[in-house]
Amino acid sequence: MAFSASILPQQIKLAIKGLTTGRLVAMAILIGGIIAGFSFLINWSETGNLHPLYSNLAPEDAAQVVARLRERQIPYQLTMDGTGVLIPYDKIYETRLELASEGLPRGDGIGFEVFDETNLGMTEFVQNVNYQRALQGELSRTINTLLEVESTRVHIVMPAKSLFIEEEEPATASVIVKLRRGKHLSKDQIQGIVHLVSSSVSRLKPEDVTIIDNSGKMLAGFKETSTVSQVTSNQLAFQEKKERLLENRVKTMLESVLGRDKAIVRVSCLLNFVQQEKTEELYLPDNSVVRSEQASTSFVNGAGSKASGVPGLQSNVVPNTTGATGAAGSKNNQKQQFTKNYEVGKLINRQIMPVGSIQRLSVAVVVDGSYRPAEEGADGEQAQYIPRTTEEMTKLENIVKSAVDYDGTRGDKIEVVNIPFEVETPTETNNFTETPGWLEMIKTHQSLIKYSAAALFFFFSYMIVLKPLSRWLTSTPIEEIQMLEQLPQTIKELERRYAEAGKEDSYTRQLENVIRDNRSGSTQLMKEWLKET
């Protein structure tokens, strides 16, 4: 039958009409899978040599990077909703160096590069605004270097300076942090961000910095929170940490002696969080020294007369008055003065009492005994438990007291008790080494398992789905062959076909008659043919 392109669509329609519903669905699935596979191969072949230049770019940085790539005529492709750029692998590092020399990517916001281009007509107000924008941008870039932070916005309010200190208002700052998926900031990191911002802005105190995350949760800036509650929370955390430290110290020591999981330790501490400051001033009377000494001497020289005669005014005043006169005598006086200052020894002692000292300590320890294995051949026999002796318990108690720094004067209490943990524990378990679980094995060989699973998936998909489906579709039953033979044919082709069929039927009929008439000869002839083959 000659091929004719005009009747090809009609023949395809007849062939599709002859298929069952199941085969039509299978053919549609097969054709869709082939188209999807070819689309993936074409896409992969186009982007197979492209690798990430940058990812998670800001829209402004992505636009500038794309503009530079167009200027250099470097092929690129945008991914991740326009925040990622792919270029050929052999040009990645060179392009990164060239873009870095131009300051790209700049990150979120604008930094101090705003002052690279100076404008002579710029006013002081514009300069102050640009400085504030640059400071906000630089702080945002610095905070973005944390592994847990994806992006940051910083807002700073800097009041105008005043000539009077009393009228100056403090600066304030707000930080909005967008965290990466599954990440969170610890208290130390939050305090680090607070002090970073407060130290970068003048007149900004740490308590005036507010930090919130992308979900609106306040991380810092709790001005309304009571200081007492914060102190109490820190004290409880410190007490718990102290108790866990002592428990771990005692437990590791006992397990090294008794064996793994052979001891249970619980510690309770009563800590003193009272802040005390003590100052003593002691005087030492036996320790006295001369601090200063001063001596002074004075002399008085002169003549003097002693009064004599009749008492009265006339005898003493009128001259040439007869009277008894005394003999004149001289006068010489000396005066000395000594002053000594002593310094008494003094001792000043100033002490700040430690916060969090242990007032009372309580330790409870439960240890397991030893086990004797059951006799060989004994059915249903359990391991025999052997309690520890009094001497062993005394030694263990002394070890625990030394480990926790036991002090009986402050009321410390230590209890060490021997109780069986598990009666049916065989001795062979003491030498048992724990093997890593299947989850740890999967995590260790995660990459190998991933690629192996993908290869197996494609292999079984081809062997179980695609190959049988294509074979089933390509296989044509006898009825369909007969149906296809009934497709439009010429009259000559139909006559030739029926003529050949008639001849074949006549030859077959004649052969059947010969075999029926001469069975023995026909049988012998068949045997000879079999021998020849």
Automatic annotation (TrEMBL):
Protein name, as recorded: Flagellar M-ring protein
Keywords (A to Z) from UniProt: Bacterial flagellum, Cell membrane, Cell projection, Cilium, Flagellum, Membrane, Transmembrane, Transmembrane helix
A single GO BP: bacterial-type flagellum-dependent cell motility
Superkingdom of source: Bacteria
Molecular functions per Gene Ontology: cytoskeletal motor activity
GO cellular component, one term: bacterial-type flagellum basal body, MS ring
Domain Flagellar M-ring N-terminal as annotated: residue spans: 49-220
Keyword set includes Membrane: yes
Ranges that cross the membrane: 21-42
PANTHER family linked to this entry: FLAGELLAR M-RING PROTEIN
Cellular localization per UniProt: Bacterial flagellum basal body; Cell membrane
Domain Flagellar M-ring C-terminal residues, every copy: 254-421
Family: Belongs to the FliF family.
